Amino acid sequence: MLNRYPLWKYLLILAVLIGGLVYSLPNLFPEDPAVQVSSARGDGPVDERQLERIRESLEEAGIEIKAIEGEETSLLIRLDDADDQINARDRITALLGDDYVVALNLAESTPTWLQSLSASPMTLGLDLRGGVHFLLEVDMDAALEQRLEVNASAMRELLRGERIRYRDTEIDGRTLAVTFTDAEDRDAARRLISREFPDFDYASEGEDRGARLVMTMTDQAVNELQDYAINQNLTTLRNRVDELGVAEPMVQRQGPDRIVVELPGVQDTVAAKRVVGATANLEFRLEARPDTPDAETETFSFRNDASRRADLMRDVIITGDSVSSASRSFDENGRPQVNINLDGTGGTLMNRATRTNIGRNMAVLFIEHKTRDQVVLEDGEEVTVREPYTERGLISLATIQSALGNSFRITGLDSPTEAAELALLLRSGSLAAPIYFVQERTIGPSLGAENIKRGVMSVQIGLLLVVLFMLIRYKVFGVFANIALALNLTLLLAAMSLLGATLTLPGIAGIVLTLGMAVDANVLIFERIREELRGGLSVQQAIHAGYERAFTSIIDANITTLLVAVILFSIGTGPVKGFAVTLSLGIITSLFTALLVTRAMVNLIYGGKPVKKLWI
Description:
Residues 230-287 form the Protein translocase subunit SecDF P1 domain. It is a single chain. The chain has helices spanning 7-24, 48-60, 85-96, 112-115, 126-129, 140-161, 183-196, 219-244, 269-276, 344-355, 416-428, 445-499, 505-534, 539-571, 575-606; strands spanning 32-39, 65-70, 74-79, 100-107, 123-124, 131-138, 166-172, 175-180, 200-205, 212-217, 250-254, 258-264, 281-286, 297-301, 309-313, 318-319, 323-330, 336-342, 361-378, 381-399, 407-410, 435-443, 502-503. Helix content is 48%, strand content 26%. With 616 residues, it is an alpha+beta fold. It has four domains: 7-26 and 446-606, Multidrug efflux transporter AcrB transmembrane fold, CATH 1.20.1640.10; 32-107, Alpha-Beta Plaits, CATH 3.30.70; 140-221, 2-Layer Sandwich (Hypothetical Protein, Haloacid Dehalogenase-like Hydrolase, Chain: A, domain 2), CATH 3.30.1240.20; 278-443, 2-Layer Sandwich (Gyrase A, domain 2), CATH 3.30.1360.200.
């Protein structure tokens, strides 16, 4: 019989529509403006006395609290009004002082029963949800210095292995100089080193005890090092952002030495800066013996006790670059520790260094590059100058009990939070060169709310115009098309929520375009039905022919558009990808609603019935 679906097809369409409705519902529950309070040391949340002081302070300011939720290491205060967020943060910060980190946040408000079905709202991009924008600059001079220090360490080991005597090494800019006891040792060292390190220009200076070998890194090697530093930092920053769990972040290069990082939805700028901008690395060194020459040792203090000091060898066994994985845990006494696995090369170097030094102490040195602003006078005017500096401190100093391999642990950490962040940094990789924050912008939720308001208005206007056109042009069949259009929008929102797609302003533009294109298929079908009716076919035959004969044209048109959307997604970045995602999903949902949903409605109303006239 014409224009009748089997029962299973009606049930399938109904199931898809119900699923779409359920998984689009979370988008009706907007996130609550909130303030998050956490200990600066990560050792615990706010206690009851301080919580009562916070409550009284906010009540005095007329700030209404919606709810207070305590988590393992932080406190979340939900507010009724987004305009109160900044005021609440400032008051809590003044109340608690520097011992706590107080940050803006957006707390999910999806009902529990929807969360139990793994239903969650769409992720909003930086332009809609707010977040942080960082412009970072890579310190290329520090990258060059780090590379020369590594080369100097390798050269010293090479000279000791060949029993060539040297006095000390010195680094200045892109030049590395080694001083020898006589010219004969210098010339022997030059022949040896030049074979292993071809990226230098070599020059001999002085005689006797002033004999020096001066090595200057070539221009080509410097350029290659700078490219490596920026690309390695890009990779490391992407890994760190992935560890933060930020949806659709942007990490990309800008110019020769800068990197842009955008983190949608992140309001805790302090935590974001601490993880993204951390330039920490580890060095594993042996403690110096009492008879070791001063030129081969360095003295460092412990991070948690500046009065304790230790003399270490200048040569580095391995650095954090050799770490393949790291995780936080606790030792048998409940103290935090980091479990480390090394890559093949790192494991070999560690085993070689420890198996011949059993009973000797090995230190873990924590290195962090920072900056401080200083005000100086230039031409009679005060100018703020950024001064980079490096902090080095010992985490632990332990006796080597047996030869170590690819796996071991680091103890002596102050708190679980410190252990977690150290593990995160080691997992994501160390930076090839220090980075400094040149620009920092926080895009607040209020700006995002304004963008969402305008985006929703554009969708509403587009939807209204399409609905009016279809009603006027196609009457009852226009009602079918409009119902399908509403269901199409519901399915599109559900699909984006399920897939975790990020909605941006270009994505909203894609939704508006989808709404305009969604009725194209119905227009083709309805016009075909009209044409068949004018050709003398019966109502049932005209409906059947309209859907069947328009099918090929509809598929061809939408497939070509889908291919363009896929190409845009594969080669585009940022906003272009957001547009391509919504356009692709919109095409799929439009085909489902136009070909199956409207046909099901037409079949239920007209199928198998003696209809003499169609209102179309």
